[in-house]
Amino acid sequence: MLALVYHGPGQKKLDERPKPTIQDATDAVVRITRTTICGTDLHILKGDVPTCQPGTTLGHEGVGVIDSVGPGVTTFKPGDRVLISCISACGRCENCRKGMYSHCSTGGWVLGNRIDGTQAEFVRIPHADTSLYPIPDGADEEALVMLSDILPTGFECGVLNGKVQPGSTVAIVGAGPIGLAALLTAQLYSPSEIIMVDLDDNRLAVGKRFGATATVNSADGTAAQQVMALTGGRGVDTAIEAVGIPATFTMCEDIVAAGGTIANVGVHGVKADLHLERLWSHNITITTRLVDTVSMPMLLKTVQSQRIDAKQLITHRFKLADILQAYDTFGRAAETKALKVIIEA
C-alpha cells in the first residue's frame, strides 16, 4: 500500500509499505477514504516531536471503512464506515477512567507518532471499540475529518480549558486551523467578544467571516496594545494560544485580564518564558492539555445539525498519490491560503 513516511527531520516520502494486520484482539484495520494534514505533522517534520521515529507513517486524522477486526472487537464489523479519533484509548486504565484518554497507558496520541498513522491506504487502530465512531447515514465524510482532531482540540484545549462563558471576552492568538476551530466552537458559549490575532490578513479575513468580532494583525509588534485598547485596557477573560512559539505565549501573558485564563493549545518546540514578576498577583490560570476527544460525540451531533459548518475549514483537495504536493501547499499556507487539505485515498 502507499503511505507517507517520516524519514527524519525535514524528510518525508510516499513509500510502498505492507498493509497492516491485526496485532491485538482489540485492533481494527481501516481502509482510509479521506485523511488530512495537521500542523502537528509539520512539527514532527521540524524535529519537534522526538517520540516519532523515522520510518513511521504520519497522520492521525481520517475516516474510512472497517477492513478487518480482532476477535475482541464487539462494536464494529467489516464494511462499517467509521470516524477515527486522533486519540486511541483503552477506556480501562487509571487515566482513561479519569477521562484523560490522551494519557491512556496503552494508547493516547500514538497514531502517526509512536505507531503508523492514517496518511496511507490502510491503518491499524488499537482499542477500536473506544477509538472509532460510527459514521451516521448521509453524513458528509469531508466535514467529519475535521472531527478527528482540530474541532475537539480547539474546543477542549481552548474553549473548555479557557472557561469561555456567555458575555466573556476572548482572544485567539493564531488564526490557523486550530485557532479557527476554537473560534467556531467558542461561539457555542456566546462570548461577547472574540478577537482574532494573526500575521496573515487572509486568515484574519477568514476569522471575521467565521464569526470573530474583531481582528488584529500582529505584524507591527503592537498587537497586545491593540487588544488592550479593544477591551478598554482590561484585557481578555480568555487568551487562547494556538501557535506554539514563545512570542505568542508572551502575547497571551500581556493581554490576559486579572482573574483570566491562558489556554495553551499550540505545540511548543522550544521553551517559553513565564513572566511571574508581572503575573504572580494577577489571579490568572494557565492551562495545558493534549486533546482527549471526549467531546467528539457532542461535536458530531453539532456538525450533523449544521450548528457548526466544519467543511468551511477545507480549502484544498488532493489524491493520496499527490500527498507531497498537498504538504507543499499546506506548508506554504501564507501563499496558498490553505487551511485544511483533504487527502482522498
Quick structural gist:
The chain has 345 residues and is an alpha/beta fold. The protein has helices at residues 39-46, 94-97, 128-131, 141-145, 150-160, 177-186, 201-210, 223-230, 246-255, 276-279, 296-304, 323-331, 333-336, and strands at residues 2-6, 12-16, 28-36, 62-69, 81-84, 122-125, 132-134, 169-173, 193-198, 214-217, 236-241, 256-264, 285-287, 314-319, 340-344. The strands form three sheets. Strands 3, 4, 5, 6, 7, 14 and 15 form a seven-stranded mixed beta sheet that branches. It has a six-stranded parallel beta sheet with strand order 10-9-8-11-12-13, sandwiched between helices. It has a two-stranded antiparallel sheet with strand order 1-2.
Describe this structure in words.
- 28% of the residues lie in helices and 24% in strands.
- With 345 residues, it is of the alpha/beta class.
- The chain folds into two domains: 2-149 and 292-344, Quinone Oxidoreductase, Chain A, domain 1; 153-287, Rossmann fold, CATH 3.40.50.
- The chain is globular, with a radius of gyration of 20 Å.
- The N and C termini lie close together (10 Å).
- The number of helical segments is 13
The description of the largest β-sheet is: 7 strands, mixed
- Approximate shape: globular
CATH architecture of the largest domain: Alpha-Beta Complex
The proportion of strand residues reads 15-25%
- List how many beta strands DSSP finds: 15
Termini gap = 10 Å
Within the CATH hierarchy, at the fold level, what is the topology of the largest domain? Quinone Oxidoreductase, Chain A, domain 1
Please give the domain count.
2
Helix content: 25-40%
Instruction: Just give the CATH class of the largest domain.
Output: Alpha Beta
Overall pLDDT score:
97
The chain-level structural class is alpha/beta
Rg of Cα set: 20 Å
Order of helices and strands: EEEHEEHEHEHHEHEHEHEHEHEHEHHE
